[in-house]
Amino acid sequence: MTVTVWILYALDRKNTTSHMGHTPLEALRHELQRLELSGFIVPHADEYQNEYVPACAERLAWLTGFTGSAGTAIILAQEAAMFVDGRYTIQVAEQVDKHNFTFNHSGDHPPAMWLEYHVRPHHRIGYDPWLHTPRDLERYQKVCDRVEAELIPCSPNPIDQVWCERPSIPLGVIQPHLLEFSGKSSQEKRADLAKNFRDQGIDAAVISAPDSIAWLLNIRGSDISHTPLPLCEAIIYATARVAVFVDSHKVSPGLASHLGPDVSLESPEAFEGALQQLGQQGQHVLCDPTKTNTWIFSTLTTQGAHIIHGDDPCALPKACKNSVEIQGSYAAHERDGVAVCKFLAWLDRETPNGQVTELQAVAYLDDCRKQQKLWEDSSFPTISGAGSNGAIVHYHSTPETNRLLEPETLYLVDSGGQYLDGTTDITRTVAIGEPTEEHRDRYTRVLQGHIALATAKFPKGTTGSQLDVLARAPLWAIGLDYDHGTGHGVGSYLGVHEGPQRISKSANDVALQPGMIVSNEPGYYKTGSFGIRLENLVVVICEKMSKDSNRPFLAFDTLTVVPFDRTLIVVALLSTHERDWVNAYHVRVWTCLIDKVDTETRAWLEQATQPLS
């Protein structure tokens, strides 16, 4: 899956009128006028800085109609602008009214730059301090300082005041995540962090990222569709004690016993008081300025806390999976491979009649996964794009856009599963009928980039941004590229997108380390025609080098076990090394799955894994 996907539902735009029958944009402008604000910044965010947010936090979708998982709007009295990256340029034009909003590529024209050209001296620009991190807010503050405007924190959020029938805050039940899947007890994790705190002179750390809390306490929640996150905040102290601020309705029977006596469950209302107490005691508190909202920073600072800016202390150890988690991921990918191969075999049988639709394909694939042991959910809504829909990077099929998988087209399917022992994410592009020469050329070049990354060997300390070019080089050679990252981290029965590691053009100072799981997903998209993406998950491993090697080296081992479409591969374009890699990979897929698939799937799999000649 690419770095972001479509959100988990679509708001009903017919029912998004607000007070007095105004449209959402009109209602917000009336509220801003009442508050004597010149404008308001609307990010796609919640107070936890999640990528995927609950329905009650989908303010950007309610206001604009845009349902992507990354974007920002700025609303002024007479102007309004939307900002999305290259993954969403097609989607934003389809979903947002161009008469009310101008569209901007956030990489070329970021929101702060736009604001500088449109804000005037003495303007008052509002923002919700729960939805912005200090790092995010810095850019807007610099702009306002330069033009002598004011940046005004707003609580409550003006949108919440005019959003009629806003969904309720989720109350998903929190369950223990067993040691047989986590591989390390919460007590051990907390002890390790606490020791580091004491060594660094840190008294406590505020953890507001739900996936970090889930990892630290070996718990999983159900507040977000497809991602088992418990929405809550926590404070971990240098004594290894943890206070979790969570609604009591979320607490399952036996959860307190699972957490143990050093973890206290407190009400969300007690969170502010706990922060104030840290400040009043002059404590040294670690906060991540890229993950923790501004309200938390402000509360600590005004009460006298000494804030230490640093990375979320859970992020890196969470990313470096232990041996139990790694073995669980291999096992989950085998079961997922069985499901995806069953789906692809069905696709091969059914699509010649030209009657299979995108949504029918999603339903069948979902059913294949549900039959697998330890399956809990999809890891994100399946991207099922036929023909030109596949060229929309984060396409989401609806009854209105649902297309047939027609002959002489390509079909792109990006999907994944949440299993108790691992999270999967895989993209395959397949030919429906006879592919064109252009289809085969582009597919082969994407495959070459995939192989280059899969077989990379790199010295310890290498970052994903240093490897990104490997996946793009075959496309660059003929003047083509793709506008998304090449790889994202993946959690262990957690988020299908997980930091801090990634593989992309953008600078990233986080070195790849053994145990990290990342995606390998180069692609190519021809607007209005077709899309290609080939994605496997890989795990970083230690590489055995010759005795002459002067430093430790790392490599990737592929977790995903599903064949590539041989009919789309131009063997003449492949080097001997590349051809051998495909053949060896297909032997591995066949060997791994031969005794696990049904008879019909086995016949398809045997043909799909034949060697390239």
Question: What are the main properties of this structure?
Answer:
single chain, 613 residues, alpha+beta, Creatine Amidinohydrolase, Chain A, domain 1, Creatine Amidinohydrolase, 19 helices, globular, disordered N terminus
Taken as a percent bin, the fraction of beta residues is 15-25%
Broad shape: globular
Mean pLDDT: 94
Name the helicity range.
25-40%
Spatial extent as radius of gyration: 25 Å
CATH level-four homologous superfamily name of the largest domain: Creatinase/methionine aminopeptidase superfamily
* Poorly predicted spans: 3-17
Q: Give the terminus-to-terminus CA distance.
A: 30 Å
Q: What's the structural domain tally? A: 3
Strand order of the largest sheet: 4-3-2-1-5-6
Kindly provide the name of the CATH class of the largest domain: Alpha Beta
Give a summary of the structure in a few sentences.
The protein has 613 residues and is an alpha+beta fold.
